[in-house]
Model the fold of this input.
Amino acid sequence: MTEIRGNSFLGDLMDELLKNWEGLKPLSALQPAKDRVEGLLADLEAQRSRVDRAAVMTLVGSTGAGKSTLLNALVGKEIAVAGEARPTTRQPVIYRPLDADVSEWVADLPGPTPRIEVYAEGGGGVWSGQILIDAPDTNSVERVNREVVQALAERSDVLVVVAHRQAVAEASTVQFLDAFQGMRGLLFVLGHADTLSDRGRSELAEQFKKIAVQRFGVDQPRIHVLSPMQALNGPGSPGWAEFCEDLQQATLAGQLSRVRRYNAIGTTEQLTAALAPLAPSILDQLGELQGLLHAVPEIYQRDVLAEVRKRFDIRSRDVQGLLWDEVGRRWTGPGGMALRVGGLSSMGLGAGAWLARRNPLLAAGAAAGALATQKLQTAGRERSMRDGSEWLPGRGDLKRVYDSAFAPLKLAQRRLGGIDLALPSEAQVSDGLHVAVGESLAQLLDSDLMDQAQQGAQTPWKILVDLPVYALGLWILVRAVSGFVAGDYVGMDFLVNAALLAGAWLFLARHATRFLLRRRATALVEGIKAGLQARVRRTLESDLQPSSTLVVERSEGLARWSELHTTWRDRILQSDPSPTINSDPGD
Done:
């Protein structure tokens, strides 16, 4: 794997992580962990940006542990001054090859300005050509020195822990390294081995190994007991070859980027742990918000749509009347005429038929007046049906429902803090309800009613109703013609009786037809009520969708964060063909 590919890979992970954090960090409950998380994120970003640069090793340890001597041995020549004074290094010294940029590491460092030494390659050491930092001693009496060491180590790829032969578990070094548990590739060196017996080496190595496991979280660490001075003077120093092999595994064949990736695994583990105590409470609050958002349509269906459905039931006779009128318009025969008259019109037609025996003109006028009155009633009924304001509760009732539905949401939003749900206003919800009702009424009157009317005026039923009337009319015509020929004219009473007979048949047919149409009208109203319920739910869900999406994103973001370490670890290990490092950095 090349360094450039490694940089791109870490960049992809980093972009995803930063985007996730941008959504989470405004939450009030996460503020206690904000500084910690952003510090770790900055550390990850620094690691990503250094993937294709020279490796950075920081040597940490107490006075007299042999850091400077080890540094010289790593490069293969004397580039650092060793000594026994306390502290040995009063300011950090950064040794860099000619082509390495160290401006990133010296920026904003606390304490004295680091001294930068440029060295020429060619010493033959295993770390020649890389950046080495000789840090101030961790047990320095000057507190600022320990702060400098910590800042430098945060910017490094590998920490080499150098322990004094007489102070393997010195508290200052152990406490300092606790801050980097699992974050860095840790290599452990016990110096001045030339002054120890074989038994002393073994005992101190075992003691150091326990510390590495218990305090630094390193699984099966390898402790290198060696003498840097002997290694500098000659390559045959005991333990030096094994130590060099561990370092070489981090530098050969792209292993350097792997060290940084393992560092990233350790950092993401700490990022996961940083939010772990806070996440359950936040998830509960986000779940409460989501539940309240889902409850809003239910509240409106219970308190508003129930009232609308009740008004539909009350106005169902108007729907039946409109359906009858539409069927009558499409029915051009006598049966259609019978449907178009009713109530007062029927009374007028009956009175007109009775008066026709004495005054036909009066009878015709009464019938015409009845038909005109029926048309006016139909027009008024349709205008009333189209007026959506008559179907919804009053403004005060709508405000009460809005407060009942949204007040708990706003309260939960304030408790959580740092999340802007952008809830719809009362006017916006009210307008949406009016639009939904208006669309349902338009569908009823302009579409569904017309379709049902077309089906209700089907030809077989029209023939069954109209044929007897046409037969009666033909019989009257035959009687009139035959009477004219024979000179025996039919009288007015005969015509009136025939008309009454036809009227009686049409009256029965009208009621039968209306009974059939009433079933269609009932189904039509039920369908419109169901459609209105769906429209209102869609309208409210559309108004609440941005808020619901935001809550889901925050919940999913926290869930992803809880799996952050596992996700990064799996993806990094899957991309690494040989993921084993002897010193197990970052694990």
Notes: The beta strands are 56-61, 93-97, 115-119, 131-134, 158-163, 185-190, 223-225. The chain is about 65% helix and 5% strand. Residues 281-563 form one domain.
